[in-house]
Amino acid sequence: MEEGFVRARFSNYYSRAYPSPPPSASSREWGFGGWEKKIESRHSRFNSGEELVAYLRRNAPLYVSYSSAYYEFPDARPMERKNWLGADLIFDIDADQLNPPCIEKHGKGWVCDTCLGMAKNETIKLVEEFLLGEFGFNRDNLHLNFSGNRGYHIHVIDDEVKPLTSPQRREITDYITGKGLEGKYFFFERGGRWEGPKKSDSGWGGRLARGFIEMVKGKKLERILKPSTSKRFYKNESEVIAGVERGNWDVVGLGSSHKSYEDTWERLGQELGVKLGDNIDQNVTFDTSKLIRMPDSLHGETGLLAKRTSSLEKFDPLKDSVVFGKSPIKLKIEKAPEIRIWDETFGPYENFEGELPEAVAVYLICKRRAKLV
Amino acid sequence: MKVGYIFVSPQNHFMDLSFNARYPFSKSAREYAENAGLELDFGLVEKGKRRAEDAVLRKRIPSIADSSFDLESEIASYAIARMIVSQIGMGQAIESYAIAEAKRASSYLKSEGDESLKALAKDFGVDSENAIPVLKYLSYSPRESPYKLVNMKLADGKVSVSKGQLIRVLEEAIRLRISGSLPLKIERVPPEIKKAAEDIRSQMPKPEVKIVVSGDRPPCVQHLLEKLARGENLPHAARWTLTIYLLKAGMKEGEIVKLFSTSPDYSESITRYQVGYILKKGYSMPSCRLIDSHGLCVYKCGIRSPLSYRGTKTGR
Hints:
With 373 residues, chain A is an alpha+beta fold. Chain A has twelve helices and 17 strands. Chain A has three domains: 2-177 and 277-318, DNA primase, PRIM domain; 183-272, no CATH class; 328-372.
């Protein structure tokens, strides 16, 4: 009954909306999911964007995904026969990967303003600092959208990134997450002095210097150093900061024992890098045959739109991605954490029976927290 | 016998002849050779054969100074060596050849003035001698920790490099350009070329270790062993995975080192060091998922680690 309800709503949405397909839609492999699985069928192809939209209207799939890859024969099987021609570069930021403090309150798989805000900040850092600032990608080639559930997707659509191989993409994620960072390439002895990156340096050097200074100021060094060492630095705070700003790490006293700091830089790297989750989460970036949610399609686990956005700062996923209305739906809820939709907070619920607005009902039903009465 | 064209005197817009002789794979050298002509005489075939032989069998092509000052025939010998190597018909020969050519070029680059270095960098789409566009860098940088992107200076889409680093990156770019352009498809192969290729093939060392093809190794490991047996160049992640697996499967350090002797860039001391390092560090076996993400999984066995593969020995 619930599945039918959701499908009818999705079908209704697709009949009035015209989600714009990604560039080169006909060179991509498409996959669709239903009530039980996010991808039930794949290896589909469409000859045009219109054909795709017609399919969405006819079938109202609960999940719509396409390959970041472009193929000569997107519907051929097995994979090798598709003839890979290149792929967009994709990043996935998910609130669950950020270890938000609110997880204790609402558990994994649920969202609130705190963790969605963290995901947004992480996305902004990835885009502004790394992709635009360091990698120098063109802003016009970055396409951002809400994932429809717990985070954001970034698509880099650029002819120059298309041919990147999987190991080359992994180099990019390693850079962004600070993995494999080694202090010995940033710190060195010169004329009896221990020199290192200064605040104004570009790339990871400057990031390490700035991050270190921030940690001294914010008394957070314990995250990367022993408590006793941290205390010593706090005591000489102004001297330490003045030194590091200029790249003179002698004041920090790292010189003599720099070897024992190798882990410290790796930890600092991990603190300052973008949290893209573990290997499996990062797969979306370096596995060039993965399927990714189509922007502006509905997400079957929330009923929210995987909405495209060009101004992340002002974007409010629990408002801007809501497409369903306020007509009352009768529901039974055993237990559900609170959720904000529009400007209103609903729940938490325990053994609730009553009417809720359609958009909230779709969300709770998709999350398997509510049943129709 | 004439195979196409005769050398004519160099024109002004080419880099000078000696640049082209040092870097015969460059666009400028190709342009030069296309405008010039080449008559395939006995001397040239011999010279090309020597170049191919030096690369494939001795892993080192001597620099111009200690062989000849005849710059035109130096360029021609490159073209002929490529034809011969293509005819050998073994991946290992192509890889060895590309590595030796890249090393030869790199030894010139080290003593090169700024202008020639700049010119060669430009040939590979690198416009500045101290910064490389990041996506180019990712294609050409060696997979070694000092060159790992996270340890480099990256700003505005450019990776800052020292002269030494630029040369190392160019060496890799040269290797990839040469190995990627071979084997050549030639319609009618002159008999002299065929004979030279046959001659070199017969002198190529047979793999020292017999690699047993049996059903009790996981398909990914088996696949890597077969590649090794064919003398193909395995990427770093593949060598790493294979070494850990073989150590865990109880193979002795020395045996593993020997196993890699078919690699086109084999160096016993480096291999010994690397295998020893893995042994010393006691790395755990990469999971199937990780192996898959490196593109090394060839068959979905439905297990989590190659070590839990139980084979197809019995039953089937």
